[in-house]
């Protein structure tokens, strides 16, 4: 993920998930502008089109208004243009996933296609099966991390340089909750400063790493209150959980513990929900750790080095030593600022988001060859087969897309 130096964007008030419909209607009528520009999604999609634009509210916000640059706006509102298939029901879970597709990619993946301002789901056969273009750039832009909820029905989304978080209803393709104020950075009164990572925990709370405020937050979407905070704004040093040094990753583990990545000195810490530090080690051979994940068995840690050339390391936290590494200095297999690496279930191969190469790849664990790729290296685009600064990914183990698309011709 980008380094903790300045970058900008605006705000809208967070709405609790239990906000009454009449309140929502009043807000829509009085505070938000409808945008016809955001109404056109891919065929078969239904996306929200209301956009927050309360200038008066933003001017009263206790944060700092930031300038939106062309880089931050990216490609604008775009979609692949494909006709999307009907969404199959949820029949799997993380503990009992739907049938695997096997190698090279066992499950479809949802990609946060950052500079296309969209979420897109790609099956192992590279069909696009689901897509959410930005409903409106005024409040949804630069989605950079995405993860499914435990029931597979919602998506947690973070937007670093839009300074906000979202929850998306997968089946309705709508944004149902926002925390933070687009284009406004701050540390008080519901404001964020470069939030990275987004997870809905099993209890429904939202986990994120608020990088430039040097804190990790667990937020209750029902009340918009911070339930847990580790670290303090302005106290950016490694002393978990009281202080954190530019945390850019917070990943839940199966037992509820959380892996926290700190940019400074590449610290990775395992912390319980109660704030007890189980261990804290420096990731070996990594300059800029990005979003550490546990391996499938939960015993080791896999982390991407957000550098050029980048690398991926699996290490044993008990010894602090690497047990596997992927690194190529140059050539087709080299990485340019990879933000996420995950060990794949069933195959043990490694899924990598190669951000600035505009692609997502799978690397064979044994041969270290690239065996699957979506996106064209170094070529930006939004049509089928192309990405524009992909920055986040999660596995869809919840829906049997293989069976659902078996009778449909590949387009």
List the helices and strands and how they pair.
Blueprint: H1 21-30, E1 32-34, E2 50-52, H2 55-60, E3 64-65, H3 70-73, E4 109-113, E5 118-122, E6 128-133, E7 145-148, E8 154-159, E9 164-169, E10 174-180, E11 184-185, E12 195-200, E13 206-210, E14 215-220, E15 225-230, E16 247-252, E17 258-262, E18 267-271, E19 277-282, E20 289-294, E21 301-305, E22 311-316, E23 321-327, E24 338-343, E25 350-354, E26 359-363, E27 370-374, E28 390-395, H4 401-405
Antiparallel strand pairs: 1-2, 3-11, 4-5, 4-28, 5-6, 7-8, 8-9, 9-10, 12-13, 13-14, 14-15, 16-17, 17-18, 18-19, 20-21, 21-22, 22-23, 24-25, 25-26, 26-27
Protein architecture, described:
The protein is mainly beta. The protein has a domain at 21-287 and 390-402: 6 Propeller (Neuraminidase). Helix content is 6%, strand content 35%. Strands 6-5-4-28 form a four-stranded antiparallel sheet, with no helix packed on it. It starts with 20 loop residues before the first helix and ends in a 6-residue tail after the last helix. Residues 2-60 have low confidence and may be disordered.
């Amino acid at each position: 993920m980008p380094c903790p130096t300045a970058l900008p964007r605006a705000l809208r008030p967070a709405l609790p998930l239990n906000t009454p419909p009449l309140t929502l209607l009043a807000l829509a009528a009085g505070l938000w502008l409808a945008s016809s520009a955001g109404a056109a999604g891919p065929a078969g999609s239904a996306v929200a089109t209301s956009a927050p634009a309360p200038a008066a509210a933003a001017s009263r916000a206790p944060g700092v208004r930031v300038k939106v640059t062309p880089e931050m706006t990216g490609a604008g509102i775009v979609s692949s243009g494909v006709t999307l298939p009907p969404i199959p029901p949820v029949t799997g879970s993380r503990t009992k996933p739907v049938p695997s597709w096997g190698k090279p990619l066992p499950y479809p993946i949802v990609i946060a296609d950052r500079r296309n301002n969209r979420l897109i789901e790609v099956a192992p056969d590279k069909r696009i099966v689901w897509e959410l273009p930005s409903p409106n750039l005024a409040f949804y832009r630069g989605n950079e991390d995405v993860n499914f909820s435990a029931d597979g029905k919602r998506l947690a989304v973070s937007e670093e340089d839009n300074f906000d978080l979202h929850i998306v209803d997968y089946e309705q393709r709508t944004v149902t909750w926002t925390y933070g104020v687009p284009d406004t950075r701050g540390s008080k009164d519901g404001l964020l400063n470069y939030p990275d990572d987004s997870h809905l925990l099993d209890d429904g709370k939202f986990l994120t790493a608020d990088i430039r405020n040097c804190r990790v937050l667990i937020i209750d979407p029902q009340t918009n209150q911070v339930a847990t905070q580790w670290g303090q704004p302005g106290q950016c040093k490694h002393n978990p959980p009281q202080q954190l040094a530019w945390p850019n990753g917070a990943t839940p583990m199966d037992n509820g513990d959380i892996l926290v990545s700190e940019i400074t000195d590449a610290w990775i810490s395992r912390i319980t929900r109660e704030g007890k530090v189980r261990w804290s080690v420096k990731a070996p051979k990594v300059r800029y750790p990005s979003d550490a994940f546990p391996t499938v068995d939960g015993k080791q840690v896999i982390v991407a080095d957000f550098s050029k050339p980048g690398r991926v390391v699996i290490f044993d936290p008990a010894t602090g030593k690497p047990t596997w590494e992927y690194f190529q200095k140059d050539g087709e297999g080299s990485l340019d600022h990879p933000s996420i690496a995950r060990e794949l279930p069933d195959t043990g191969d490694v899924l990598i988001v190669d951000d600035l190469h505009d692609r997502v790849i799978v690397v064979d664990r044994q041969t270290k060859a690239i065996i699957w790729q979506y996106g064209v290296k170094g070529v930006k685009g939004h049509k089928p087969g192309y990405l524009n600064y992909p920055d986040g990914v999660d596995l869809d183990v919840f829906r049997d897309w293989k069976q659902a698309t078996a009778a449909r011709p590949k387009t």
